[in-house]
Every structure is written in structure tokens, then in C-alpha cells.
């Protein structure tokens, strides 16, 4: 199969794992990379053997590049997605799809008009852990899902991220930065959501960086940092979510799905691995379940690979723009519900992505 040539825009902290994906999967070839800071693009190109480091304009003008991979900060996501589509390229980006719903809509509309694909992280739901959970649900191990819980509880990225300022700007915060992992996993396991409610607070107006680079520096907070929400799924299940960077510790589970015939403990949706546990109605203990699917290592880029196969084989891709837009609307919905004191009725929907086969080649997705 002819490789799909990819150009990466944004060569910061997360980019290395995407550059590595270029050598892990046969379907893509990373042909160029760009950054506002050309030195960063050159550094990554040299480290990962990418033939061209260039400006964003040069990358977008390269006729060989079919997919632009957008690894910029959230505020730049919409602009880069739109420019990539205008240049006739498919586009795949880090989460969130965009900061505002209006920008998300514009991206999907332009892609439709140009007959191009939009894809978005997270793609951890394609990993062995969550695909095993999906198979267990599809095979009826817990019966019909009737409820779910999702808890992302921590003390914030300012202790480890080299550039944590943007993670407290509008478009980030715990819901927009971490919520996509949990919400995408829930949509993959249960389906789309019709209504949400939320209570959100900004607990501290500023945070103190404790990484090695800027230790002691204060950063302003623009967004809620503790958000508690509920979700009514289209299939009738009810979910509870908390995303917080205001707690020093928690023993709450990451994700659990409660079915009519049992309970499923889902692994951390920010990872690709297990463990997975099930307790059926007629059992007294939880059982550790063997993983049925591969890609259990850090396989960021899987969603991009899936999109590359989708382009070559003319099928739908799983980490889709439609699902990312639905997630974006849910995240806004929690905040809007809190501000307005009412439930938020969700206007968008999306298809539950197709489950992956348990029998795939080591470095491919389409058999
Ligand atoms: N760091 C992580 O662990 C992590 C994990 C998962 C997802 N993400 C997501 O990946 C994205 C990037 O995060 P990061 O941690 O790599 O950030 P970063 O700040 O380390 O890197 C972002 C890079 O994008 C470049 N950039 C910004 N605007 C640009 C523009 N308009 N044109 C070209 N380049 C531009 C910056 O110069 C920088 O090099 C974010 O959406 C984040 O949510 C990060």
C-alpha cells in the first residue's frame, strides 16, 4: 500500500511520540515538520531523521503531504486545521479539536465542503485496554450499560510540564485538557450523550510552577479547575464525571461501567494498557481479564494511522472530527450548565466508532 505522507506542525513536548510513530507503522511517512520556532522543527527533524524542517507556509505548500498533523497549543488548533484544509490536506490534531464550538463547526464544515477528513486525538481508546473493554461490553459480559463513573483527580501539570501556562488558559484546564480522554472512552464504550449538567469552580486564581525550568513562577488561571458533571447518554445510561487539578490525592477509580449483569473496571483512559476487571452479577469477586487486543504500549498516533488506512481503503476513520466535536460540545456543556444553573441539551451527536479486530498484524490496522 502506498505510504501516506504526513507533515507535523508543532514540534513541542508531545511531538516526539508522533515522530516515533513514523517508524513504528508502515502506512505513514513523516515527510516534513514545522513550528513557529524553526529551531524546534530542525531539532526534531534531526533527531528523528525527517528530511525537511520548514515554515508552516512551506509545509502547507508541499504537494506531496496528504495529512497535516496539528500538535500546536489549543489556541492554534482551529487556525492550523483550517489552513491545512484550505491547502487541500486532510488534518489530524491533538485534543481539543478547537477552543470554541463555532471554530469546531467551521472546521467540520470546511472539511465536508472540500471532501477531506478531520481526525483528532485522543486515540487511547484504540489501545489494548479500552478495546478489550469494548469487546467485553459488545460480547455481553456486563449486560446493558446503565451507568458510568469517570474521575480524573490530581494536583495539576505545573509540576512536570515544561510550559504549563497554556494548560490554565481558556481551551485547557482539567476538563478541556484531560476530559477528552474520559469522554472519548465513554462514547466508545456506551455511545453519544444527549444532555449534561455541571458544577464548576476556579479554586485558586493563580498556580505556582514547580518544574525544574520555572520553579516558583506564578501563572494566572482563566478556567475552572474542579468540575463535577453528569451525563445522560442517548441509550439511557447515566454518567458521573469529575475532572480536577485541585486535589492532592484520590483513590477513586478512573472509569467504571455498570451494566445490568455486571461491572466493568476500565483502565486509565490516558494510557493504552490494562488492567481490566469484571464482576458479574453471580460472582463475589472482581476477575482480572486478559487483554484481547494489541497496542498496549504508548501508541499515540494510532488514530492517525487509522485515518491513513481510511484514506487508502475508502472507509471511515475512528478518531473522527465528529466525535471530537461532540466531546468539545460536552465539555462546554458542563461549564455552561454551571454558569446558567440549568441542564445543557447537547445538539451534536456522533457514531460510536467501529471496534478494532482482536486479530491485527503487529504494525498495521487493516489486516
Ligand atoms: N505534553 C503532553 O504530555 C501532551 C499529551 C497529550 C496531548 N497533548 C496536547 O498536544 C498539544 C501540544 O502540547 P505540547 O505539550 O506539545 O505543547 P508545547 O507547548 O510543548 O508545544 C507546542 C508547539 O507548538 C508550536 N506552535 C504553537 N502555535 C503554533 C502555530 N500557530 N504554528 C506553528 N507552531 C505553533 C509551539 O512553538 C510549540 O513548539 C496540546 O493540544 C496538548 O493538549 C500534550
Automatic annotation (TrEMBL):
Annotated PANTHER family: BCDNA.GH03377
Source organism of the structure: Paenibacillus pinisoli
UniProt name for this protein: Gfo/Idh/MocA family oxidoreductase
Lineage of producing organism: Bacteria, Bacillati, Bacillota, Bacilli, Bacillales
Molecular functions per Gene Ontology: nucleotide binding; oxidoreductase activity
The entry's keywords: Oxidoreductase
InterPro entries, per the entry: Gfo/Idh/MocA-like_OxRdtase_N (IPR000683), Gfo/Idh/MocA_oxidrdct_glycsds (IPR050463), GFO_IDH_MocA-like_dom (IPR055170), NAD(P)-bd_dom_sf (IPR036291)
GFO/IDH/MocA-like oxidoreductase domain: residues covered: 130-264
Domain Gfo/Idh/MocA-like oxidoreductase N-terminal intervals: 4-118
Superkingdom: Bacteria
